[in-house]
Design brief:
The complex is a heterodimer of chains A (116) and B (109).
Chain A: E1 4-7, E2 10-13, E3 19-25, E4 31-37, E5 43-50, E6 53-56, E7 64-70, E8 73-78, E9 87-94, E10 106-107, E11 111-115
Parallel strand pairs in A: 2-11
Antiparallel strand pairs in A: 1-3, 3-8, 4-5, 4-9, 5-6, 7-8, 9-10, 9-11
Chain B: E1 3-7, E2 10-14, E3 19-26, E4 32-38, E5 45-50, E6 56-59, E7 62-66, E8 70-75, E9 84-91, E10 98-99, E11 103-108
Parallel strand pairs in B: 2-11
Antiparallel strand pairs in B: 1-3, 3-8, 4-5, 4-9, 6-7, 7-8, 9-10, 9-11
Classes of the chains: A mainly beta (116), B mainly beta (109).
Chain lengths: 116, 109
């Protein structure tokens, strides 16, 4: 069984469109995250979501919004897509804590987003 | 600001040729240093967490060590299946996890 899963694996869309990426974890973890890995391969945190508490990295544009229907799911919605949003987006989860927790984080397989 | 620098950026080894990857860090109070392995087209896979200077952890051909300024990932007698990008990340407890750019390891049979 996949511990952290994401859909879709690939997403190609036009500038200006709105899209969503879904994430599910079956580890029973309390905290979920979204990361962006750009073309230079840097992984950067975007959000942390723990027990309905959302912590946003201040560098993330407000076009990006995480939505969590329950503890096992954290979806990423992106409005008005721009060329610079092209990247690989990873979902992760950890047992507890939040953005500043030192718990080990377990990553999903990633979603490659291409904005044309 | 927490910083992580990994070196070398890329490393090519012959099968069986042992070597080390370096992760230098600058944080205000290290709470944990993490090593991950990332295969092409996949998410990072957790390897080790180190919490204090002098700590060592091993898994198969990999051994991670930690000092107050850096961590090493030693690879003993590597095999082609060890080829991957190895990522280092640090946590200071009051900032999000900060990753380095990684070291891309290629092991040639």
């Amino acid at each position: 069984d996949t511990a952290v899963s994401q859909t879709p694996k690939y997403l190609v869309t036009q500038m200006g469109n709105d899209k969503s990426i879904k994430c599910e974890q079956n580890l029973g973890h309390d905290t979920m995250y979204w990361y962006k890995q750009d073309s230079k391969k840097f992984l950067k945190i975007m959000f942390s979501y723990n027990n309905k508490e959302l912590i946003i990295n201040e560098t993330v544009p407000n076009r990006f919004s995480p939505k969590s229907p329950d503890k096992a799911h954290l979806n990423l919605h992106i409005n008005s897509l721009e060329l610079g949003d092209s990247a690989v987006y990873f979902c992760a989860s950890s047992p507890s804590g939040g953005l500043f927790s030192t718990d080990t984080q377990y990553f999903g397989p990633g979603t490659r987003l291409t904005v044309l | 600001e927490d910083q992580v620098t990994q070196s070398p950026e890329a490393l090519r080894l012959q099968e069986g040729e042992s070597s080390s990857l370096n992760c230098s860090y600058t944080v205000s109070g290290l709470r944990g240093l993490f090593w991950y392995r990332q295969d092409p087209g996949k998410g990072p896979e957790f390897l080790f967490t180190l919490y204090s200077a002098g700590e060592e952890k091993e898994k198969e051909r990999l051994k991670a060590t930690l000092t107050k300024k850096e961590s090493f990932l030693h690879i003993t007698a590597p095999k082609p299946e060890d080829s991957a990008t190895y990522l280092c990340a640090v946590h200071s407890g009051n900032t999000p996890l900060v990753f380095g750019k990684g070291t891309r390891l290629s092991v040639i049979a």
